[in-house]
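Appendix B, Record 12. Input sequence as logged:
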Amino acid sequence: MMSTRFAANPETVATRVGDEIVVVHLGTDRIYVLNRTAARVWELVCEDGDRAEIERRMLGEFAVERDQLSGQVGELLASLADNGLIVGST
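Logged structural output:
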């Protein structure tokens, strides 16, 4: 089961470039570019990290149905975790 709390991997650095966020994984030297929506999820992971809070805040900021948002946030968090950009947190 996927964690419900997340944090940025300490081996990453990120910077905003316009509407996007560029994340560099220092351990792998890989660069990731997050679009506007993914960038907002990244910011919320860094602020709070609680999946329910991320979804609650995203629902207030984007015109999307709860079920659709939950599925997309789950897929994005899984992808970020699979690429080592975020880690489960307690």
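The chain has one domain: 6-83.
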